[in-house]
């Protein structure tokens, strides 16, 4: 085969065919690894790309060389083999980062998933009776033990939990909610929309900033199906405000036979686990205050897998278990295994504080975070003109928890390079490293880096610094502030 085009010839004629390239050394190993079909598709795509290049640049004859073509094929195969869902290094300082998967799982939860994943399990099989069982029994005892509830149920997320409750307890009836609690959960999912889709009518009471018990009492009627109290876990109203205590609302519900449900959202099992943080209601506390049912998320302050947890009176939970929608909201064996393992850790709060990653991150002293950042910095060599220093930072909880609250942390501040370009280069790393931009600095908060990830972050940053390079002398601060 010719290494270049003759005068007057179209260089695309020199491109080898797919069969010819399949005979090249190395392609057999690719077929063994990725399969013949993906390799042939990559070869065809590489040849098509080479034709486009040569059509625009006839002198770029290297595009027709087998070595160049096969290098392009190898890159295509590797990119296409890369999973869409991948681990990333979270250096944003947002502990429960919804876009990054919220709470990382505890080692015990990962081990539990690994045990049931490759095998059959007793997901819906009663080993004692040798007959069909229920998947909803696997976490019930632990939830009752940890919350004091009579019964419990697990669905696939908290929005599903609220929808199930509304559909069962208030279908074609009214759900009474304070105007100050008509929250948007996230991703444009709003409490009014969930109530409507679940087949109930929303009855708003009070005002945005002030709701009294008399407002709930005035809303009572033959069509009242449910009092829903929503914990403002992802927003905060300050100033001239008033809300009804759960205990008072529960008393009104009992007086008139109207169930009271408390949507906690975040679901911190024990407030004692986070000393120094703002007060946060717990499932046990809400049930003790008289709520008939509480709901919360599994992947927020509980630090487990995505799930919606419901706990409360046996009569109410029994009704929910009989609702046909439950099948649409049911969880799989991996979720139940991870949730059960996470809940077991909470039997010993000290163990949970050590082993549940989200709780451990929130509790880690800022001095300890700073120590990890300084230790990792020792092995980093930044290009000339680029500065990397340890700086005091502020972390947030995230995941719609503790709105407006931040707390001390530490990490790296990178200056002397275009922050937006460095951000993009870090996100393109392997593994991707996600930080944040503040003015002209690129920040990496070490609080949200898991133990052992410090060196990975350093290596990704070092590679990204080489690609981003120093900032231009007249470059202004990109981004216009922190994001």
Task: Give a short summary of the structure.
The protein is an alpha/beta fold and 483 residues long. It contains 18 helices and 18 strands. Helices cover 38% and strands 18% of the residues.
Structure report:
The chain is an alpha/beta fold. The chain folds into 3 domains: 11-81, no CATH class; 89-96 and 362-468, Alpha-Beta Complex (Aspartate Aminotransferase, domain 1), CATH 3.90.1150.110; 105-355, Type I PLP-dependent aspartate aminotransferase-like (Major domain) (Aspartate Aminotransferase, domain 2). 38% of the residues lie in helices and 18% in strands. The protein has 18 helices and 18 strands. The strands form 5 sheets. The protein has a 7-stranded mixed beta sheet, with helices on both faces. It has a 5-stranded mixed beta sheet with strand order 2-14-15-18-17. Strands 1-16 form a two-stranded parallel sheet. Strand 3 (125-126) and strand 4 (131-132) form a beta hairpin. The longest helix has 21 residues, at 36-56. The radius of gyration is 28 Å and the shape is globular. The relative contact order is 0.12.
């Amino acid at each position: 085969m010719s290494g270049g085009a003759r005068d007057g010839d179209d260089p695309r004629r020199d491109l080898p065919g797919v069969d010819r390239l399949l005979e090249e050394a190395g392609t057999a190993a690719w077929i063994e690894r990725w399969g013949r079909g993906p390799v042939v598709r990559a070869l065809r795509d590489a040849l098509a790309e080479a034709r486009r290049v040569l059509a625009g640049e006839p002198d770029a004859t290297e595009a027709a060389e087998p070595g160049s073509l096969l290098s392009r094929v190898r890159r295509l195969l590797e990119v296409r083999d890369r999973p869409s869902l991948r681990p990333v290094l979270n250096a944003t300082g947002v502990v429960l980062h919804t876009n990054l998967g919220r709470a990382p799982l505890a080692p015990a939860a990962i081990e539990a998933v690994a045990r049931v994943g490759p095998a059959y399990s007793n997901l819906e099989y009663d080993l004692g009776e040798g007959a069909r069982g229920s998947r909803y029994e696997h976490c019930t005892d632990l939830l009752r033990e940890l919350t004091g509830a009579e019964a419990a149920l697990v669905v696939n997320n908290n929005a599903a939990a609220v929808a199930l409750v509304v559909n069962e307890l208030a279908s074609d009836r009214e759900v009474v909610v304070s105007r100050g609690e008509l929250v948007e959960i996230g991703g444009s999912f709003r409490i009014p929309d969930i109530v409507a889709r679940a087949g109930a009518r929303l009855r708003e009471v009070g005002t945005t900033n002030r709701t009294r018990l008399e407002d709930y009492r005035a809303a009572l009627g033959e069509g009242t199906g449910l009092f829903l109290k929503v914990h403002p876990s992802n927003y905060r109203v300050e100033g001239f405000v008033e809300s009804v205590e759960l205990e008072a609302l529960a008393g009104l519900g009992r007086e008139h036979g109207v169930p009271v449900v408390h949507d906690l959202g975040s679901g911190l099992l024990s407030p004692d686990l986070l000393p120094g943080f703002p007060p946060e209601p717990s499932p046990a506390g809400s049930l003790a205050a008289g709520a008939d049912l509480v709901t919360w998320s599994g992947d927020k302050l509980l630090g487990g897998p995505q799930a919606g947890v419901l706990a409360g009176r046996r009569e109410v939970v029994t009704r929910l278990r009989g609702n046909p929608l439950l099948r649409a909201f049911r969880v799989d064996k991996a979720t139940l295994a991870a949730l059960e393992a996470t809940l077991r850790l909470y039997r010993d709060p000290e163990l949970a504080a050590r082993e549940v990653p989200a709780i451990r991150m929130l509790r880690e002293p800022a001095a300890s975070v700073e120590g990890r950042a300084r230790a990792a910095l020792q092995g980093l060599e930044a290009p000339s003109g680029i500065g990397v220093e340890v700086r005091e930072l502020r972390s947030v909880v995230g995941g719609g928890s503790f709105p407006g609250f931040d707390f001390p942390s530490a990490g790296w501040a990178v200056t002397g390079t275009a922050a937006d370009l460095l951000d993009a280069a870090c996100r393109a790393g392997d593994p991707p490293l996600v930080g944040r931009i503040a003015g002209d600095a690129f920040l990496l908060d070490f609080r949200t880096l898991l133990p052992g990830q410090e060196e990975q972050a350093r290596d990704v940053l070092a590679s990204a610094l080489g690609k981003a390079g120093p900032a231009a002398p007249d470059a202004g601060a990109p981004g216009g502030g922190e994001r």
